[in-house]
Structures are given as C-alpha cells and as structure tokens.
Amino acid sequence: MKLRNLTLLSAVILAGGAFALNLAARSAAQRISAVVAPLAKLDFDGAGISLNGSIRLDSPQLTIGNEPDQTRLRADTAYLKGSGLGWLVGYLMDDAGTLPESLSITMRGFKLADDSSRTSLSRWMGLSSRALFENAGCGSDALGAKDYVKMGLSPEPSRDRISYRYDLAGNRLEIAFDLDSPDMARWQGATELKGFDPSRWSDERARQAVRIVRANLSYNDPGFLSRRNRFCVTQHVDAVKSILASHGIKPSNDLVALYHRIVSRGGTLNVSSLPKSDWIPAEWTAYPRQDLLRQLNVTARLEDAPPIMLDLTFSQPEVPLYRVTPDPEVLPTAEATTETVAQDATVESGIATPSPPVVTTVDTPIA
Question: How many C-beta atoms surround the C-beta of residue 361 within 10 A?
Fold first, then answer.
C-alpha cells in the first residue's frame, strides 16, 4: 500500500513539474515574441519544454516587414536554447524585457517562403534545395521532388541553425547561421556588430551608431549544380547572366569565370566583407548600389584560390531586386540594361583594393 501511494505521489510530482516547465516555456516564448514585435511578428501554434531544456515552438512563423513586401520564414518545429542549464529560469526572473544574451535556434522543416507576388527569391535560389540559381535555364517551373529523383538524389530533411551572442559590456552582437540541405547546398555565415544597444533600438541615434565589423558568407555546392546542368542540358551560366541583366547587374569577367568553375566542379565559394568604418548600415537603402558595394569592400574566392573583388556594375536607373519581370515602361529591358552596363563598365569604379582579408568558412555556428 505504501509503495503504491509513493508511486502515485511521485507521478503527481513529476506531472506537476512537467506542467510547470511547459508553462515556463510558453511564458518565455510569449515574452520573446513581445520583445521582437517592433521588428517582426512571431507566431506559433504551441510551445513546450524539451528534454535538454530548450523551448520547443510548434509551426513557428516569423513575419518581417509590412505588406506588400513582407518576408515570411516558417518551420515545422524550432528549438530555442540559451547558454547554461538554468538559462530558462534566469531569463524568466530577469524583468529587463529583452532577449536572452545568447540564443541558439535549431529548426526542422525550415522554409524560405516566397508567397508574395512582389518577391523573386525563387529566381535567385531553389526554395527547397537552396541551390544558387537552381532554376536558371530550366524553364518556368521550379524543380521538385520528382526532378531530384531523376537526378539521382534522395533529398533529406534540412539541418538548420541560427545563433547569436550579445556582449553587454562591449555592446557587440555576433550572429551566425548554418543552413544545410544535404547533397544540394549549404549556406553558412557570420557577422559581428559593434555599438549595438538593443534597449535603445527604437532610438534613431542608437541605430545610427551601429557598425558592421566583419561579415562572412560561404556557399558550398557538393556537385548538385553539375547534376542539375546534366538534367536540364542548358546554358546555365548564360541564363544567370540574363537574370542579372534583367535586374540591371553586370558581373565582371572574373566573377563569371569563378561562378562557371563552381557550377562545373562544385566546391565552396567564400564571400567576405570588411566595411569601411564610417559606413552607416542603418542608411544602406540611401546608398546607390555602386557606392554601397564600395563601402562594403567585398571579396570572393573559390576554395583556396586568391580572392578577387566582388566587381559588379549597375545600370541607371537601378532596377529593384524584388521585381520578377521588369516593367518595360519604367525599367530598362535586359538587352538595354546589358548595353548600358557595358558602356558604364569603361568608367573607373574607384574601388580600392586592400590586402585580401582572411576568409574562413564557418564550420560551427556560435553557441
């Protein structure tokens, strides 16, 4: 009898503890949603606690921006975890009304949404594979699961992680991400900001003080693009140049050659930026693209090859990147853009060529 009562009491205590932990997880998720509300809207169907102490969000969706230019990021499940075993209790006891100083977000079924008629993300990359210019030259229909099977691939669920770490004393924020679509594409990146004060983000002067110390981005092609080219049997590089021309962008011959190499051989493309110290990220939309590229000081390299400047020429007037089809009454056609860019290419760009920065592929995002 005593054993039975003890068992029942233990079950009640465990059930009560599990209920309390799930309640804490939901409270923390609602608090995080409220904190990010000025910048984005976070929705989810439910929240709970995982065995490792992370918050589990069911069917989360993050909406950034306003109609009609909203960006929606979705996932089947997301797991949010801070640093240390007691991070959740410490976060709930802190009444500062901010995000945790560090957070790692692991996602299952993460989707790069493209459900707005004014966005053209699918022109730049595959929404499922995340392969660069996946559909260029393959027709109007996006590649799907049946096409991947014909290419000899068995797509696996993506493995994705985003993390950040904030140094309160130094007002520095480090952000990293790792988006891995096995056998198709892998994107990794990291950036460091200084002068970042989240408690004063609504203050225009505080946003003006933020600077980007560095930014790195890598794209790994494990051979998917060459498979894609054999499947489509098309002039993929020419199709990519046409897409860029429709947006008023003309890459240098060196960049075209670099892209041709990764398409034919695969490998890792590294892009690095060491922005000028007086460049103000909060005003990036005010910079003409040519000047913005100069301010960002971007280099690119494939594997261990010497880096080259990211040399692009832009047409005038500039063509919005989100346009799927340029308006012929307002925007130049692809042919006209190509001619204009070719003429402008003779003008000295004025981009200084500093000593090449060290570019590293991010193997493990910041915890």
Answer: 17
Cβ proximity of 213 and 139 under 8 Å: no
Q: Which residues contact 47 (CB under 8 A, 6 or more apart)?
A: 22, 25, 26, 28, 29, 30, 55, 56, 57, 58
Is-contact 340 333, C-beta < 8 A? no
- Inter-residue contact 176 to 366 (CB < 8 Å): yes
Cis peptide before 306 (omega within 30 of 0): no
* pLDDT tens-digit map of 91-149: 877 766 788 889 999 999 898 765 544 446 777 888 888 999 988 888 767 788 888 99
3-state SS, residue 299:
strand
Q: 304-359 pLDDT, tens per residue?
A: 899 999 999 998 887 766 544 443 333 343 344 444 434 443 433 333 434 443 43
Tens digit of pLDDT for each residue in 249-286?
A: 999 999 999 999 999 999 999 999 999 988 999 888 88
Within 10 angstroms of residue 6's Cβ, the number of other Cβ atoms is 10
- The residue with tokens 């003309």 is 250
Tokens describing residue 268:
């890792």
Whose CA is closest to 201, among 233, 166, 230, 228? 166
Cβ-in-10-Å burial (0-12, 13-18, 19+) of 286 comes to exposed
Q: How confident is the model at residue 18 (pLDDT cuts 50, 70, 90)?
A: low
User: In angstroms, how far is the first alpha carbon of the chain from the final one?
Assistant: 49
